[in-house]
Specification:
alpha/beta, Rossmann fold, Helicase, Ruva Protein, domain 3, 3 domains, seven-stranded parallel β-sheet, three-stranded antiparallel β-sheet, globular, binds guanosine-5'-diphosphate
Length: 310
């Protein structure tokens, strides 16, 4: 657990729901959590089984409290599925497997949103969970995302869960939404922004496409970690999405997406041979182990990032 304030600066992190939360587990050990703001993707948010599901936000909430099921990077560790199983028994199967404790979070958020909207609802939930970091949804508005595949146009969760990301992806389309209050402001007042190793197409690009975000990033020190190692993502469909959009599936391709504002790009040891090429795109390239398969690796990566900021 973080004890002394090793790094006393304001940091904003841009996050999806798997790669960046892994980094947050390391970061929160070495940075004063009250100086962290986490802007979270909302592209895939929607209503399921009568509750609002903001999977990435809930993953970040659970990561910051230590409740996260970090085997699947979804839901609460040790959760039960009594309601989910009963719904199936009575002929009402759910597309998403929502655990009982996780469902309570989602019911509360749905209720709070009716009165306050998403940003305030998340702020209240974070406070109730004892989280001192600021967690901001990228937008209060719902996005419309469609995955265009060889078997037709699919809803994001159908592509991911029903079809297990198997169809060939031809295009990814999402609507533009407005930034939530605090998104641009927090980037502007931060000493540095960390773009975690999250899906560059469906987690980070939606945040970058918000009005004012890219301009704010140009005026801030930005360090990013590549979610692509070699010619594939560490997990999930990022490489399929990049390929569909004509972006090289490699750390070089990710660097080109962040080119306009990136100051330091962290790539994996396995991509050492790409360093020179990426140096044409980004001034500083750091080569290290970026596979975060244990707390030590997560903390090491967090230390390297923070060391580059100071
Ligand atoms: P999602 O919201 O569940 O899609 O999750 P994110 O967008 O946050 O993260 C997905 C991305 O994280 C994928 O592109 C993975 O390649 C990347 N990722 C997951 N684990 C690691 C890791 O240990 N190291 C690195 N470098 N990338 C990772």
């Amino acid at each position: 657990m973080y004890s002394e304030n090793e790094f006393d600066i304001m940091i904003t992190v841009l996050s999806g729901g798997t790669g960046t939360p892994k980094l947050l587990q390391g970061l929160k050990e070495i940075v004063d959590p009250s100086e962290l703001t986490i802007i979270v993707n909302t592209l895939e948010n929607d209503y399921f089984s009568g509750v609002y599901v903001s999977a990435d936000i809930d993953t970040v909430l659970y990561t910051m409290t230590g409740m996260i099921n970090d085997e699947f990077w979804y839901g609460v560790k040790g959760d039960t599925f009594i309601t989910h199983e009963r719904l199936e028994e009575i002929g009402c199967p759910e597309l998403l497997r929502i655990g009982d404790i996780d469902r309570a979070t989602k019911i509360q958020k749905t209720q709070l949103m009716k009165e306050y909207g998403l940003t305030k609802a998340v702020e209240i939930q974070a406070e109730k969970m004892g989280i001192v970091s600021k967690i901001i949804p990228m937008s209060d508005e719902n996005s419309d995302i469609k995955i265009i595949t060889d078997i037709g146009e699919l809803e994001f969760h159908d592509f991911l869960i029903k079809y297990q990301s198997q169809p060939e992806v031809l295009d990814v389309k999402f609507s533009n939404v407005s930034p939530a209050p605090g998104v641009v402001e927090s980037i502007k007042k931060s000493d540095a922004v960390i773009i975690g190793p999250s899906n560059p197409i469906t987690s980070i690009s939606p945040i970058l496409s918000l009005d004012g975000v890219k301009d704010a990033l140009k005026d801030t020190y930005v360090v990013a970690v590549s979610p692509i190692i070699g010619n594939d993502s560490v997990s999930g469909p990022a490489s399929k999405f990049m390929k569909a959009l004509g972006i090289e599936v490699s750390s070089v391709g990710v660097a080109s997406l962040y080119e306009d504002f990136l100051d330091n790009f962290i790539i994996d040891n396995k991509d050492d041979d790409k360093k020179q090429q990426i140096n044409q795109i980004v001034n500083k390239v750091t080569v290290t182990n970026t596979i975060m398969n244990n707390l030590g690796a997560k903390k090491n990566l967090a230390q390297i990032i923070m060391g580059s900021i100071l």
